[in-house]
Amino acid sequence: MTTEVIYVAARVSLNLLSYATMQRLGLYITEAEANQEILTKEPWAINVKTERVASLGREFPDVFQEGLSKCEGTKATLKLKEGAIPVYRRARLVAFASLAVVEQELDRLLNLGVIKPVKHAEWATPVMIVKTDGSVRLCVDLSTGLNEALQLHQHPLPVPEDIFATLIGGQVFAQIDLSDVSTGGTG
Questions:
Q1: Which domain holds residue 142?
Q2: Domain endpoint, select from 66, 98, 113
Q3: 29 and 104: one domain?
Q4: What pLDDT, in 10s, does the model give residues 26-45?
Q5: Widest CA span of the chain, in angstroms?
């Protein structure tokens, strides 16, 4: 038995129970738990799921191809505030033990066309090394000058409640990793 606080909202589309409450009451299970339950009861389901993924791969080969793809449908444009002055920040020091890894990652990004060498730049920002799942990501710190010089787009981010309300009734959800996105353009 459990005692829980439940908030009743005026909007029907909002969840009334917290994640923790739903778990304690047995009303919420993760996808992994659901898959494990299906596989325990119906071992043949793994073949069905594998075939479904393979079928999608055959139907949409561009989506499931290995390697880096390029976003060619649109091009990002950044507009500077009037009178913005270029900011050039020197590179941060990289630990000697990380130099080889950073050089390898730069070479990889160069070969993929994500970055390109330049002889001169008015704008420069330091690169930060982020270690994830055993690999290295290079990220730029745009807070050192560029962010302040950009005109803001007036597109406020939606609040979680609005996002969740639009997902009601959804059946297919996807996660896209844009860690190595290249615009495919020249600038």
A1: 68-182
A2: 66
A3: no
A4: 776 665 555 555 555 555 45
A5: 69
Phi then psi dihedrals of residue 107, to 5 deg: -60, -40
Contact 91, 126 (CB under 8 A): yes
Query: With 60 as the cut, is the pLDDT of residue 186 above it?
Result: no
Q: pLDDT (tens digit, 9 = 90+) per residue, 75-129? A: 888 899 999 999 998 888 888 888 888 898 889 889 888 889 999 989 988 888 8
CA distance 134 to 100: 15
Residue 88's CATH number: 3.10.10.10
Residue 127 CB partners (closer than 8 Å, separation 6+): 91, 92, 102, 138, 139, 140, 141
Q: How far apart are CA 149 and CA 80, in angstroms?
A: 6
Would you say 163 and 152 are in contact if contact means Cβ atoms under 8 Å apart?
Answer: no
Last residue of a domain, one of 37, 66, 95: 66
For 40, left (φ over 0), alpha (ψ -120 to 50), or beta?
alpha
Residue pair 144/125 in contact by the 8 Å Cβ criterion: yes
Higher pLDDT, 58 or 38: 58
